[in-house]
Design goal:
Elements (H helix, E strand, L loop, with lengths): L6 E7 L2 E8 L5 E5 L8 H5 L3 H4 L4 E5 L18 H14 L5 E6 L1 H12 L4 E7 L2 H6 L8 H7 L5 H11 L8 H11 L4 H17 L4 H4 L12 E6 L7 H10 L5 E4 L6 H4 L1 H12 L1
Parallel strand pairs: 3-4, 3-5, 5-6, 6-7, 7-8
Antiparallel strand pairs: 1-2, 2-4
Helix pairs in contact: 3-4, 6-7, 7-8
Length: about 280
């Protein structure tokens, strides 16, 4: 039986002091990429599912650059999610990982997919979860949703953090006082608010600057990715509604989509066992 305990670690990924959470023993590597938003981190995004994967895999969930978790908040993020992809490359290299299974939620799904597109020889399987970022990069219109409004209204208080979290999940009982405390403390640590602002500016440049948008778009590349890929989406997602997922499904005919009932934007938080079963079947 593998150690199911979540362990806090740091590694110098390139020149970035990167924090990550890990679980498991010496099994094949699974790397999980968290979403965006204040207080996001590897642990905050994947704590409920990591122990369910740890019996068969060594699971890593790094905190991205841009003010997330405990990773260096002062590292430049001039290209938004592409900066996170570059950090992911350095992280995987630093830990000497190869032939990994890679997964991501929301913004982290784009990061995972982009890394797989840039390094197809390093990724064995890919698993993506509810992502407006991928939809936008595939040319699918992405309206301002109720969940997105809640995310943008965060003002640094615990109450607004609760509103953010309740917009991301279906089961409000998982939004505990402890989770709010952890996320709100991370969101307000020195350097984090300014890093989030810089990240958003970098992401806007990546998505809108004609000279950078080619790095963001995956319209012509993701449908041709040969790595076996699965997409999961929450049926009750108010941040990235399932209708957007079904539009994306039409553009990715070779990717199986699973729409999970009683799940919001963080499917792995609402339905950890159901999602873990899908991941284990895909990764094995």
């Amino acid at each position: 039986m593998a150690d199911m305990t979540l362990r806090s670690r740091f590694v110098l990924a390139g020149r970035i002091r990167t924090h990550y959470t890990e679980a498991g023993g010496n099994g094949p590597a699974v790397v999980l990429c968290h979403g965006g938003g204040p207080g996001s981190s590897g642990e905050a995004g994947f704590a409920r599912i990591m122990p369910l994967l740890a019996d068969k895999f060594q699971v890593y969930a790094p905190d991205g650059v841009g003010g997330f978790g405990e990773t260096d908040p002062y590292w430049p993020v001039n290209e938004g999610t592409q900066s996170r992809t570059d950090q992911l490359e350095a992280f995987i290299d630093a830990l000497c990982l190869d032939q990994i299974c890679l997964a991501g939620n929301s913004q982290g799904a784009w990061v995972a997919a982009k890394y797989a597109l840039e390094h197809p020889d390093r990724v064995r399987k890919l698993f993506l979860i509810s992502s407006l970022t991928i939809a936008g990069a595939m040319g699918v219109p992405t309206p301002v949703t109720e969940g997105m409004k809640a995310l943008r209204s965060y003002d640094g208080t615990k109450q607004s953090m609760r509103q953010v979290m309740e917009a991301l999940v279906y089961d409000k009982s998982v939004v505990t006082d402890q989770l709010i405390e952890i996320r709100n403390e991370a969101a307000n640590r020195p350097g984090a608010p300014a890093a989030r602002d810089a990240f958003e500016q970098g992401q806007a440049r990546l998505a809108k600057d004609p000279n950078l948008r080619l790095k963001f778009e995956v319209i012509h590349t993701l449908p041709r990715l040969a790595i076996p890929t699965v997409f999961a989406w929450g049926e009750q997602d108010t941040f990235a509604p399932p209708e957007i997922g079904r539009e994306l499904q039409k553009l990715l005919p070779n990717v199986p989509f699973h729409f999970i009932p009683k799940a919001g934007h963080q499917v792995q938080t609402d339905q950890p066992q159901a999602l873990a079963d899908l991941m284990l079947a895909h990764f094995s």
